[in-house]
Amino acid sequence: MKHIIIITLFFSLPFFALAQRPGGDRGEEIEAYKIAFLTQKLDLSPEEAKIFWPIYTSWQKQQSDLRKERQQKMISFRKISEIENLSDSEVQALIQNDFAMRQRELNLDVIYYRKLKTSLPIKIVGKFYRAQEAFKRELLNKYRGGRPQ
Q1: What pTM was estimated for this model as a whole?
Q2: Would you say 134 and 41 are in contact if contact means Cβ atoms under 8 Å apart?
């Protein structure tokens, strides 16, 4: 148990430090909260934690990179008024690009599911997916109305 706490602190401290800065990024604060939440829910052994956290960190980095790329490609598509200024083929290309990005995100999820499944017991993988859903609900409750508790 002591090892899990140390590993959690190792991954969490940079996020907590950044979250405490004035004007700190809420995304970093949420990610630190998610790491603490997952640590508690998964209750990994030290050996399992050594396997899980590097896979999770790599997955999150690749997801973040894809989200940034998706945002850059969708800049012209954010406002409905901008759509009126685009040709039909440009609108169609933006929509198809969005489908392609979502497919890449799904493919990434499948790749990391397989990595988790081959590295850890399937019940831990199942607990991870359940914990992610529980985290989303908890986060919505925590920040509902724009006021963190």
Answers
A1: 0.71
A2: yes
Contacts of 65 (CB under 8 A, 6+ apart): none
Q: Where are the alpha helices (DSSP H) in 21-87?
A: 26-42, 46-73, 80-84
Q: What is the mean pLDDT of the chain?
A: 80
In a 10 Å sphere around its CB, with 0-12 CB exposed, 13-18 middle and 19+ buried, how is residue 123 labelled?
Answer: exposed
Residue 22, SS3? coil
How many structural domains are present in the chain?
1
Task: Write down the pLDDT at residue 144.
Answer: 80
Q: Which residues contact 134 (CB under 8 A, 6 or more apart)?
A: 37, 41
Full residue range of the structural domain in which residue 74 is found: 2-146
Question: What are the backbone dihedrals phi and psi of residue 127, each rounded to the nearest 5 degrees, phi first?
Answer: -60, -35
Cβ 18 vs Cβ 25: under 8 Å: yes
Token digits of residue 137: 């609900």
Average pLDDT over residues 68-75: 77
Sign of CA dihedral 93, 98, 101, 102: negative
Q: Is 101 helix (H, G, I), strand (E, B) or coil?
A: helix
How far the first Cα of the chain sits from its last, in Å, is: 28
